[in-house]
Every structure is written in C-alpha cells, then in structure tokens.
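Subject: complex prediction, re-run

Hi both,

The earlier run crashed halfway through, so I resubmitted it with identical inputs.
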Amino acid sequence: MGSKLLVKGGRLIDPKNGRDGRFDLLIDGNRVAAVDTAIEAEAEVFDAAGMLVVPGLIDMHVHLREPGREDEETIESGCRAAVKGGFTSIACMPNTSPVNDDASVTQYIIEEAGRVGLANVFPIAAITKGLAGEELSEMGALVSAGAVAFSDDGRCVDRASLMRRALEYSKIWNSVVVSHAEEGSLAAGGQMNEGFFSTSIGLKGIPAAAEEIIVARDCLLAELTGARLHVAHVSTPGSLAIIKAAKERGARVTCEVTPHHLTLSDDMLAGYDTNFKVNPPLRSSEEVSALRELVSDASIVDCLASDHAPHAAHEKEMEFAYAPCGMIGLETTLGVVNTDLVGKGVLDLNRAIELLAVGPARVLGLDRGSLGRGDIADVVIIDAESEVEVDPFSSESKSRNTPYGGRRLKGRVHAVLINGNLVVDDGAFIREEAEVSR
Amino acid sequence: MAQLQSKDLLGITDLTREEIELILDTADSFKEISERPIKKVPTLRGRTIVNLFCEPSTRTRTSFEIAAKRLSADAVNISVTASAIAKGESLRDTAKTLQAMATDLVVIRHSVSGAAKLLADVMDCPVVNAGDGAHEHPTQALLDLYTMRERFDSLDGLKVAIVGDIAHSRVARSNILALGKMGAEVTLVGPPTLMPAEIEKLGAQVCHRLDDVLSEADVVYVLRIQLERQKESLYPSIREYATLYGLNTRRRQAMKKGSIILHPGPMNRGVEISSDVADAPDSLITDQVTSGVAVRMAVLYLLIGGGSDG
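This time it finished cleanly. Structure:
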C-alpha cells in the first residue's frame, strides 16, 4: 500500500474541528497530513464522491466475551463486527471469565487485539475484584497495563461507601469510573420496564426509580469526591434530568445512551421475544420520546454506545424469565442512528458523529475522534443513502441476538481506515480479498 | 361448524366475545356428560393429549385429565419441576420431542409468563395455556364466566369485584379481560402493594377498601393469597390481611342480595375467606370446579374435535 492516500470529493463531517462540507483528506502514514477544499498531491486517490467522510466511530460500551465465552464472541469476531459497523475503536467491559480485574487479563486483551489488527481495543477494568462489590481492584496495575476506565458493568456497586472510595482512588490517574445504575432491591427479579405492559404480559417490572436512585447517588458522590463519573446506558428522562443538574453544579459527570433505548419501547415485548430483553429495560414509548427530545442537547448527553452484548442462541431461546439480558449492536448502531434518529429529525448528522466519535474519545481520554491535521487517521467512509437489510445470520458477530433482524437501515459502511490503513473497502475486508482461497 | 380462529388457546386476549360465547355454549352441551352414570363419549377417540405441568398443580391438571378422558382422548401427564427444566432439556426441545411423538394437543402449566407462547410457536399442534406465570389462565376465566352465566341471565353490566393479590395473579388478568369482553364491570380490590402498575388500562377500576364495594357487587371473586408474600413486605401480617381483605360473615352480610362468591382454589380458609363463608349457599366454589370440566371439554373439542382426518 502506498504511504499516502487522498480521500477526495466526500462530505467531511468533523465536529471537533467544526468542519462539515466538501473537503479532501490527505493521509500520510497513520496521520492526517492535510484537510482542504481541493488537495492535489502525489498519492493514491480514494474517490469518496457522494459519500460521508467521518472520524472513525468509537463505541465505549462493548462486551467481547473473551476470555471465557468464546462461543458467544471473541476479540477477533467482535473487532470484525465493530469495523463492519464503522467503529474503529471500542472499549470492552470487564465481565469476562476471568474478570478483567487483573493486569494479566488487560494485557491479554490488548495483545490479542493487536494480533487481530483491526479495531483499536481499549479495555475497561473492574472497579471491584471479581465484580463482587466488596474490595477495590488494583487500579494502579490495571492503568499501567492499559485500562482506560473502570466499571462493574452488569452489576451495580451496591455500597455507596465503596463507590465513594472507587471514585476517590481513581483520581490518582484522573480515570473515569463508569456506573451501572441499578438499585438492586428495586430491580430484583425484574424482567422488563414496570408499566402497563409488564402488567398485561405478567412479567415483573423494574421501575425507572431503580436506575434514577443510583444515578442521583453517584452524581452526589462525584460532587463529594471531585472525581470523574460516567453513567452507562441511561434509559430514563429522569436520569438525564439528574445528570443535567449535576453537570450544572459543576460535577464531572458524563453519560451515554444506547440506540435501542432511543428507538425501541416496552410494548415490543408483548410477544415475549427475548431479543428485546435488555438491562436496563426498554422503557415506555412516552419515556423513549422524552429521551429522544433530550439526546440532541450537548449539555446533557455525551455519547451513544451500543452496549453490544452477545449471547448464545440456546440461552436466548429460553423462557423469557430464564433468558439473559442484552442485544448485539456493533453492526446496527450506525444504521439505526442514521435511519431512526437522523432520518427522523431527532439528531442532525453533526451531532450524531459528535455522539459517536468526539464524545467517547473525550470521556475515555483518547486522542481520536477527529480528523484535523496531525490527527490519527481513523476514518469511516459511509454511503449514507444506501439501504441494507439486517440479517442476523450474516453478522460478523458470533451471536445473533439482535432485535433489528429484517429491518432495512439506511447507511452502509463503504470503507474504513484504521491508523491510516485501509481495512474495509466497498463494504468488504481487504485482507480477505487478498486471500480468496481461504 | 363454528370454530376458534387461533390454533391455540394462550389467553383471553386472543378471543373475541363471539368465541367466548361459542366456548361457553359448547360447554353447556358437554356438561350433561358428567352427570351420566357412564361419563364418556367417543368424540376424541384416538387423540393424544399431553398435560405438561412444569409447576405444581392438582386441581387444574386433574380437571384437564378428566375432560380429556370423558372425550375418550388418551391423556398423558408429564410433571416437571421448573428447576429440572432449567437444568435439563429446554422447553423448546421438549416441544420438539412431543411434536415428534405426534401429540395432538398440549396443555401447559408453567411458572414463567410467555412459556405457553414459546411452546405454541414451536409446535404445529394446538397448545392450551393452563396458566403461565402472572400472565394468563384462560380456562379458569372461562369456567368462571360459565359459573356466573349459570346464575345470572347476562354478564352485560354485571358488577364483579376481584379481591386480593392482583399483581401476581394470572386468574385476575384473564378474568379482567374476559369480563370486559362480556360487558361486565370489574373492580379490583386489594392493598396498593398488590396492585400492578397501570392495571386500570386493562379495563378495571381499583379500590383499596373491600367494605366500599360489597353492597354493589353481584360477584365477589376472592383470590388466593400466597402466604409467603408477607416476607416481601407486600402485607405486614396474615392477620392484618385477613382483617382488611378477608371475606368473613360480617362482610357476607353486607353483600347485595342475590350476589355470589367465587374462589379459584385452593382456599386458605380463615385468611382470604372464612370457613363458614366458603361453605355458605351463595358460595359457588364447587360449582366452579364442575364448570371447569365442562369448559375444558369444550376447549379440547373446539381445538381438535372438528377435523375428520385420521
């Protein structure tokens, strides 16, 4: 491959640098060498006419399942799904087996991701040893090994005193502590959102207050400690109101919302399809509408994240109460955001890219998510008008648990550059084209 | 022949008023069979009906078994505890196994809401929901309607009070839906801790004081209270529950003239219903059991009795 690549004729959207328009992008090695309206250079030319050229998307909430459940996802399959979905960087949650509460696990993930050589993988390590909510993990060793944040995702840190210590201790490295906000006694046994539909289909409900109580608690602890808090998968407008108030008081709080909480609602569980079972649960259509109103507000919501959670088919095909929570999302997030949020006027494209690239880079402290001169050349080129039908069986993920199967989504990932290397072109992995006989 | 639209009977939700009336009318013609010395007709001879009970039940299982046998079907009972299912074969695989054995109809009882639908989605043969979690128990509601219809000319405008643990009750849900479709007015009575969210939207009023509804109700339908719910602080003690919501003699005397008392069984005598009220002449609790066999015969017949194949 030539060392210089000139991406010509596309619509560049680079919210961090305030660019949105027809710009050429010259990439030299792994960096952006120039951005201008018309660049002439000795370089291989990539024709992006009619396409969107955006910073590589960053998903800060992904479950890769390796080590431990390689039947559901591996670092390799997860990276392939990410790149196919336009994500050049992902942060993976520590609820693996063994748990990523030890530097050796963090190192393993980074080394394996390096061997795979696709997406940039940033491990998020456990707040507490074994995710048990009892003792802090060795944050120092984990940071040294490459952990970018801390989370007990999937479990709430029940004890406020321990969450306080985690926040305080994380200040040594200015790390961010990610809250899975779920008050255990209110959510106990819950299968879905509490409301009319949980009543009519007879499943135990989880009230919005179960999330909001912990969001409020953790915002107060962030203020008390002056530490950095990130609230994962916010699912209620009430949580966003609490976060907004905390931000206005100067607390160092950020948050993410998932595409499914912005596009799906609890009435969709009427047929007991376990692909719609997720934690936090899909909320009422009224709450979803309110969440959609708020997501465009840059003073409230920092990122969109998929909470990509692969599960084996035989486990998802159980009786509803026995099936695990979670849905895959790496390959559908861009299409869902483009079709159901941008297409419906909830977000404009600039704000969408801000939420999918700039925000997560800022929260995790990554020098990515923008395409100014000198920036790392993680680039996604999107055919925004092209429609793709979601086929769970052609997914790069090893799991099939998507609620969007059969949906036609607008926006196809045409090409992906990671650290300046073209890894996907015309929607297909380059490496495979070279190894057709594989 | 008039018949049901759906392959299965999973809930009252899926039935129209006409279908409910068809089931009740059909039950009328079957009720007499149980009064004969030789209680058997050849209607379903050669048909295999599996009663798959994944939750303990004596009366519903027995009722379905007797209904099948009085129609000459071969009834096979399978009892599995939920924990055994969780450890062993999945419900989906059980369904495929029963399908491969050429079962003609499966009756399922399961502790998890939606289990009957899961089975019905996998199987080609009809599935009858004999109670799934806190979702539905359609044949219970149908036999309750049948019992009410025997006493009252019409269910239209009938005032029914359902008393007790509405939150965890599939019987309440199916009855709210069924009574609503038949034009009856339903009031739910119980403490707020046992009322599920937004239950009014299902078509019922909510009242927290039993004494306020007694003089108006044509039917007082008493639900069984699970004694272990007290540990979840859903009510402070059995004594207080019995005091606030138990149907006792004093309350029975406050009931409207000509009104009746129903209970789906099994009863906690002395808790939700006092012993003398349970045995009073206006308590039709044993009539419900009798209706149950006739209604289940009707359901089995309507689902698999119509075809001339085989």
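The radius of gyration of chain A is 21 Å.

- K.
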